[in-house]
Amino acid sequence: MNTQRILALLKMELLKLVREPAYLFLMLLFPAVLTITFGFAFNDPELGSTFNIMVPGLFAYACIFIIMTVSQSFTELREQGVLRRLNTTPMSSSDFMMSNLLSNMILSMLQVLIVFALALLVGFKSNSEILGILFAFLLMALFSLSSVGLGLITASISKNAGIATGISFIFILPQMFFGTFLPMTSNTRVIAVFMPSYYATDALTSIFGGANLLSVNILIDFAFIAIFSIVIVILGIIIFKKYGNK
Amino acid sequence: MIKENGSDKKMSTKIKPYEKPENIINPNSEFSIEVQNLRKIFRGKKGYDDIVAVDDVSFTVKTGELFGFLGPNGAGKTTTINMLVGLEKPTSGTAIINGYDVYYALSHIKESIGVCPQEPSVFKFLTGLENIELFGKLHSMKKAEIKEKTNKLLEILNLSNASKRKTKGYSGGMLRQLNMIISLIHDPKIAFLDEPTVGMDPRARRATWEFIGSLKTKNKTIFLTTHYIEEAEALCDRVAIIDYGKLIEIGTPPDLIKKYEVKTLEGVFLKITGRRIMEGI
Fold first, then answer.
1. What pLDDT sits at residue B61?
2. How far is A34 from A47, CA to CA, in rounded Å?
3. Beta strands B221-225 and B113-116: pairing type?
4. Residue A142 belongs to what H/E stretch?
5. B113 touches chain A (CB under 8 A)
6. What is the C-alpha to C-alpha distance for residues A169 and A159, in angstroms, rounded to an integer?
7. Strand, coil or helix: what is B241?
8. pLDDT at B1 over 60
9. Ranges of H-type helices in chain B
10. Would you state the pLDDT for residue B239?
11. A122 to each of A111, A130, B208, how far by Cα in Å?
């Protein structure tokens, strides 16, 4: 891997976020609007601590949408012939993938920062120390890798960006419902245990609830997020290299 | 069964595997490009015939030569370029670029080539300058070096005024000029230019052709495909004509004009490719 190339690609990825209104909205404004809306609607004394319970899900929810942006981005680059052109330069596929992973990890941390700050503003109460909050950032950065992997798989099987948007919901919806927003019952848990977002939401709930960072529950969640993310991102890279980069 | 590019001719399915040359690295070769029996067969999807896009093509291009690769639409020009720059794997035969084998030493080749694809391929959300800078950095260039070369190229190709605008708003001609600047920013030893002037207005096309011609004086090897035969005649040291995937003719423009007893290279082109159409090959 070459640092100069990775940094140049990373700069390009971050510029895309700022310059493409659709990406800017989906990645940064949408989580912000969602947090404020949910805070306004659920932070009501009549509902008790409902909003506090929902906030960890909001973190994961924001990160899940990386699946859509990654799949759209890769299919667009492929359609425009830019991926082929990049393949004629000395850039290696590892340089390209690393820049994408880094940019999405940075993005996920930005999302966490926005959601966390706005949630606090609209009444979220965290019992976590600063170390716990930093650990939450790390967890979400790790969780974002699984979204990048699923985005790559989506791009590999999608002919164009429009199809990628549709297909990405195959991965987004189950994670959104079973991993974050639906209450955990014996029925929903059967499916949720296969969703990385379930472990992310569970870990964040424990962290913001003030649990010890070395508690078994958090460590198990962390291990599952790490395993899911690493396996999915490796699978995504392999599938994209074989089928998606044509 | 194999269907020859554009014809109904059936051929054997037996394919000679890609041969590993004796020396996959030979940077002292006098040739920039050495192609031997190169073949590309695209496997047909279920129920469809295979297509021979490039069929047993052999040629060499000397260092510093401006080599024109001509042929009608769908003749196999782009597929040949794609194999030479590593975007497609040859089905059989060998191709050596700058002394390095395309199959076994592609990473060495990528350092020394510039590729200008037929369709402008740039990042639409970046400005022209940002695109050039990005590709310069991918070729390990320093920022100051990129800036200096970019300014020169933008000026030569009359793109300075638009360079700070996002390429989303560029016209087709401007995109093509930027496309070419990106392919040459790192000062490659060999430039593969695939129909670089299509869609340009006459002024931009003239500037681009003058610029391509000027590269000859810098000992650059240019592999050029174009449909503007009269300009190929004026600029190219040698031309090859390909049709239905087969290399039909190769030589200097004056020699070919003399051989076919016509007045221009376009006459040669029409005589060769037209005859093949008439003969139903």
1. 94
2. 18
3. unpaired
4. helix A130-157
5. yes
6. 16
7. strand
8. no
9. 77-84, 106-112, 128-138, 143-156, 172-184, 202-215, 229-235, 253-260, 265-279
10. 94
11. 16, 19, 60
The token pair at B281 is 């090959």
> Residue A203: pLDDT band by 50, 70, 90 thresholds?
very high
Q: What is the pTM (predicted TM-score) of this model?
A: 0.83
Beta bridge partners of B17: none
Q: Which pLDDT belongs to residue A8?
A: 92
Question: Chain A: nearest CA to B230, how far in angstroms?
Answer: 29
Q: What is the DSSP letter of B17?
A: P
Of residues B222 and B227, the one with the higher pLDDT is: B222
**Cβ within 8 Å, pair A89-B138:** yes
- Cβ–Cβ gap A80/B113 under 8 Å: no
pLDDT band at B8 (very low <50, low <70, confident <90, very high): very low
Read off the DSSP letter of residue B166. Answer: B
Residue B49: predicted pLDDT:
83
Give me B211's structure tokens.
Answer: 């610029």
Integer Cα distance of B151 and B140 in angstroms: 18
Q: Three-state DSSP class for B48? A: coil
Please report the pLDDT score of residue B279 as a whole number.
56
- The pair phi, psi for residue B96, each rounded to 5°, is -115, 125
Crossing angle of helices A216-239 and A196-208, rounded to 10°: 150
Average pLDDT over residues A201-209: 90
Asked whether the ipTM of the predicted complex exceeds the cut of 0.85, the reply is no
Enter the tokens of residue B76.
Answer: 């196999």
Q: Residue B10 forms beta bridges with which residues?
A: B3
Q: Between β-strands B50-62 and B221-225, what pairing exists: parallel, antiparallel or unpaired?
A: unpaired
CB contact under 8 A, A87 and B137: no
Chain A residues in contact with B139 (beta carbon < 8 A): 89-90
Residue B277's pLDDT band, with cuts at 50, 70 and 90, is: low
Burial A72-103, CB ≥16 within 10 A → b, else e: bbbbbbbebbbbbbbbbbbbbeebbbbbbbbb
CA dihedral B171, B176, B182, B185 (to 10 degrees): -110
Three-class SS state of B148: helix
B217 versus B33: the higher-pLDDT residue is B33
For strands B92-97 and B100-101, give the pairing: antiparallel
